[in-house]
Amino acid sequence: MENQPHETEIPEIANGLHSIAIHLLRGLQDVDARSGLSRARLSALSVIVFAGPLRVSRLARIEGVKPPTMTLLIRGLEEEGLARRESDPTDARASLVSATAEGQRVLRESRARRLEAIEEKLKSLSAPERSTVARAASILARVYVPRGLPPLPGDSTSPVILSTRKSPPQPEGFREKPHEGSTQ
What is the pTM of this model? Predict the structure, then answer.
């Protein structure tokens, strides 16, 4: 039987995961900057690509900002040709935001750069350590990755790829965990 952490160790494990998540995201800031987008725009674009089309109000809730702030972010993405607004067919008073082909390309390339940076760090681990990380990632995906999301057009991959095979530097199709609160 495996050594199970005692319940009193759970807060320590949670603290460690929290710290690692912060360091991982901070470590990717320079990589993300190469997209040419602010963190806020890149994050909004990610939600639009993976959960869109969405109403601005829904996107604002997912991103944790007020609708006027999201409207400004969307306007910037539209000006850069990365997103577009169209009338909501179910409510003429509302609009839906979706990513353009260029927006999908920018996000795909940004994601490929992130994966490459993470892969470089993983190369420093031994084979048994990489296996442990893969197992932990699989377990965490079961807890954190929302299920039932529709795939992107032409994308047959799962939300989180956990195989030990090397990821392509610029995948044709991709799927990434949507932000908290995304249900589409």
Answer: 0.69
